[in-house]
Specification:
This protein is mainly α and 415 residues long. It contains 21 helices and no strands. The radius of gyration is 22 Å and the shape is globular.
């Protein structure tokens, strides 16, 4: 029997960089650490890939080929699932379970959208990845004979499910929540009669997944970060670093420079980078849900077009870039994928946004009594998929894209 050839130096470097990116983000995938983990000379990174950016592009190109093959196989008339809308729910649940097994692809996909514009040469890979997702969604629409326009809904759902099945959320609650949400999503796409039992079970799991099991509470208040104090200045500076340069750029040194304080001040108040990250996530959480009382009482009878424009305005910032708060949350979601403490907070954030979305949906749609609590959660979840797609569009196309997609989802949820 012929012995299997050992992996080449190039393959070892790719495997090393891929592990670092999917588990730790781009920040940790330095040329030196990649080479050390691969047990090769640093000079070989430049020899095989030109530079670090070339290595990163190669990692994503390899992952894209695998993802394209995996999604293609999922919609190739699988023998264990019969085509037709009545079989969509079971197929989606099985797909989510299989997706949860591809944990490194999950991490790579989410980092791709927010880093596409930062790494030279990575944007074409991101565009090809998005085209693959849209093709998969179109083939799913055809396979299950879904109404025209389902493609974009499926793509947004797919682009957001990594928030439910990332490595740090693969507990019983997280996976059950993902599966029940998929069932509810299938009901919406197929126009199936709303299942009160399914809706209630989704909501119960959602509520159980919240921080401390209490959906009325956010993260515990941080008493040491009083308004105007040095710790608060440090956390606000951390959020600015994340918004402008990404979570990978968040270090004690970069935060101290942004806050205008000595490096010793950041290390005195925050012993580790993780402490700064956790505090920054809490601040971002508070920015999104702190004004809940006002948001939860929107005027009744909102016109769909007006609401779509309002949501697009809320998601975008100056120059029609993705708004700073949502950009920060996207960055911190990546960190949460492998951090159980942040994972719990990120689930709480999505669920809290679901409460806000629920109130808006019930105010905007003609039959608010038909909108289940889990619909608010599903809406909030898909919004992050919508943002991922919008990131890859030219800035002057984002506002119309977000408004159009919001109108389409309002139509779907009003069925």
């Amino acid at each position: 029997m012929k012995a299997k050839s050992p992996p080449s130096v190039r393959d070892r470097l790719l495997a090393s960089a891929r592990t670092l990116i999917s588990r730790c983000g781009l920040r940790q995938a330095t040329t030196r650490r990649t080479a050390v983990d691969a047990d090769v000379s640093v000079s070989l990174v430049n020899y095989h890939f030109g530079d670090r950016n070339g290595l990163i592009r190669a990692v994503y190109e390899q992952a894209l080929a695998e993802h394209r093959a995996w999604l293609g196989a999922a919609v190739a008339d699988p023998a264990d699932v019969r085509p037709g809308p009545e079989h969509l729910s079971g197929w989606l649940i099985a797909l989510l379970v299989r997706r949860a097994m591809h944990t490194d692809l999950i991490g790579l996909e989410r980092t791709l959208w927010i880093n596409a514009a930062r790494v030279p040469g990575l944007e074409p890979v991101a565009q090809a990845w998005m085209a693959t997702v849209l093709d998969f969604a179109a083939r799913t629409e055809a396979l299950f004979r879904l109404p025209p326009g389902s493609r974009d809904h499926i793509a947004e759902f797919h682009l957001s499910t990594d928030l439910l099945v990332s490595p740090s959320m693969l507990d019983q609650t997280g996976l059950t929540l993902a599966c029940l949400t998929a069932a509810r999503f299938a009901d919406k796409l197929t126009g199936a009669a709303a299942s009160g039992d399914t809706a209630d079970r989704v909501f119960e799991v959602w509520r159980a997944a919240l921080m401390n099991g209490d959906r009325t509470r956010g993260p515990a208040s941080t008493t040491w970060a009083e308004p105007g104090g040095v710790p608060e200045r440090i956390l606000q500076a951390a959020l600015r670093v994340v918004a402008h340069d990404g979570a990978d750029a968040l270090t004690h040194r970069s935060v101290a420079k942004q806050a205008g304080v000595p490096l010793s001040a950041t290390t005195r108040h925050f012993a580790s980078r993780a402490d700064i990250v956790h505090g920054a996530f809490e601040r971002a959480y508070a920015a999104l849900v702190g004004n809940r009382d006002q948001i939860l009482s929107p005027p009744q009878g909102l016109e769909p077009d007006s609401l779509a424009e309002l949501i697009a305005e809320n998601l975008l910032g100056p120059g029609d870039e993705i708004g700073e708060t949502f950009a920060i949350i996207d960055e911190l979601f990546i960190l949460a994928m492998n951090d159980p403490a942040l994972a719990q907070l990120s689930r709480s954030l999505i669920a809290s946004r679901g409460e806000t979305s629920l109130a808006v949906l019930r105010a905007a749609l003609p039959e608010p009594a038909l909108i289940a609590r889990c619909d608010g959660f599903l809406w909030s979840l898909c919004t992050f998929g919508m943002i991922a797609h919008a990131r890859l569009l030219p800035a002057d196309m984002r506002r119309e894209h977000l408004a159009r997609r919001t109108r389409a989802r309002l139509s779907l949820f009003s069925q």
